[in-house]
Structure formats: structure tokens, C-alpha cells
Amino acid sequence: CLYEYNVAREHSKVEYDCCRRVCDYLSFFFFFFKQKTAYEMLRSLVGSEMCIRDRIPRVMQNKKDKTWDKFIMNELAGATVGFLGFGSIAQSTVPICRALGMKVIGLRRRKDGPGSELADEIYTFEELDEFVGLCDFVVCTLPATANTYHLCHAKTFEAMKSSAIFVSIGRGTCVNEEDLEVALNTGTIAGAALDVFEREPLSSKSGLWNCENLLLTAHNADNTESYMNDTWRVYLENFELLSNHQTDQMSTIDLEAGY
């Protein structure tokens, strides 16, 4: 919605005003999504590590073949997780990553942005290649804006460790899917977990479906049984704050920044 809002600004006042009203409406729900997605992001992180590094497929095949296969297990402790975009979703996930013994670094527009102290290190967009090269997991939580469009492309994946896993749970427009497909098929990176895509539903013709080292979900990150009840609760809380002119306590969207 915010991406369309920024595009509409360049076209007509009618489109602009319409998108603005929709974005104002969505701001009521924003806090809920931040908290919910943090836990689902971690599930994608752990799930991708277990699936892509062959643990789950391997043990399932061993069971089927009745094979006693004792192998070395990978660890999350000591691994570095890097968040592309260090806003509320990333910050909400930091305590869980810490509990797993992971080092946390973030990339954002300003190193002194709110919450930066939660990370071990903060990098700027000008340091993108250096940043991803340090990570065992690169987690994209960026919003959809003109500046983030296809930010993750061939050069980005080439700068990553060949053992690294790429996770996308922000907005699909941030990733060049064709470049990612090449990176996965050539072993440039170890694997990826994608929950969001540039066009949804993902076309059956997309080559991503054929990538064996890809964990693919259909934008399920916040699609839980409690989704509607939680959303409605947050809407009512924010509506009450708005009615009492306590907007400073609300989670709001900066329409100029695009998130």
C-alpha cells in the first residue's frame, strides 16, 4: 500500500488522497504486525537453517531408509544474523536471537536511529556489501519504497558468504527474484527462505519453485488463528487513543518515508 502511495503522489491528487486515507487506516494495525511478525521471522530463521542445511530432509530420509546416521549438528549460537532494515520488527526479534546466542547487526539509513543500541553493530546502506559479507543469516525486513526496490540483487548475493542463508519477510519488491534464483542454483549462497514476493501469488512459471535450497511460504508470516482477534484488539486500542487525542502513544506510519 505504501509503495502505491508513493507512486500515486506523482500522478493525481485523487489517487494520492485515496492512498493516504488507506494508509491512515492501516496505521491502526501496524503495531500488531510488528509484534506478530517478529516471532514468525524467527520461525523462518530456525526453519530455514534446519531445512536448508539438510537436517530435516536428511533425518526424514534416514528414517524412511532405516539408516542410523550420526552426523554433526549445526549451531545457531555464535552465528551472526544481520537485519536489512533495523526497525520495529528487527528490534522485537533481537531478544530472541540473543537467547539463542547469536550476534546481531543491523543496516539502516542512520546509525543513530532509535533502537540502534540493541544491535552489536549498525551499518548504513552505503556499507551494504560489507554488511552482508559478515552475516550467516541475512534477514530482509525492509519496507517497499523507491529506495529499497530490488536492493537485494546479484551483487548483494555475491557479497554474501557461500554458507549464508537469505531470509525475506519484509516486502517482496526489495528482492530481485531472478538474481536470487541464480544465486541459489549456482551455490553463491547456501539457501533462502521467502515469505513475500514481488507479485503474489507467485507465478507457477517462476523458477523459484524449482530451487531445492529454498524454503517457500505463501505470505504466511502473520496468518495465524488469532490474526483477526489480535488485529481487532489493536485497532480498538488505537482508536481509543485517537479519540482521546493521545496520538503520541500510537504506532503511526510516516507517509513521507514510506513506512
Overview of the structural elements:
The protein is α/β, with parallel strands linked by helices and 259 residues long. The chain is 41% helix and 11% strand. It has helices spanning 2-9, 13-26, 30-52, 55-65, 88-99, 128-133, 154-159, 177-185, 227-243; strands spanning 80-84, 103-107, 121-123, 137-140, 165-168, 191-194, 214-216. A seven-stranded parallel sheet has the order 3-2-1-4-5-6-7. Helix 7 links the parallel strand 4 and strand 5. The protein is globular, with a radius of gyration of 19 Å.
Write down the oligomeric state: single chain
Radius of gyration: 19 Å
What is the averaged pLDDT score? Answer: 84
The number of helices is 9
**How much beta, percentage-wise?**
5-15%
| Spatial arrangement of strands, main beta sheet | 3-2-1-4-5-6-7
Name the poorly predicted regions. Answer: 1-11, 13-32
Question: Percentage of helical residues?
Answer: 40-55%
What pattern of helices and strands is seen along the backbone? HHHHEHEEHEHEHEEH
Q: Kindly state the number of beta strands.
A: 7
Largest sheet, in brief, is: 7 strands, parallel
For the termini, the CA-CA separation is: 10 Å
Present the secondary structure layout.
Blueprint: H1 2-9, H2 13-26, H3 30-52, H4 55-65, E1 80-84, H5 88-99, E2 103-107, E3 121-123, H6 128-133, E4 137-140, H7 154-159, E5 165-168, H8 177-185, E6 191-194, E7 214-216, H9 227-243
Parallel strand pairs: 1-2, 1-4, 2-3, 4-5, 5-6, 6-7
Helix pairs in contact: 1-2, 3-5
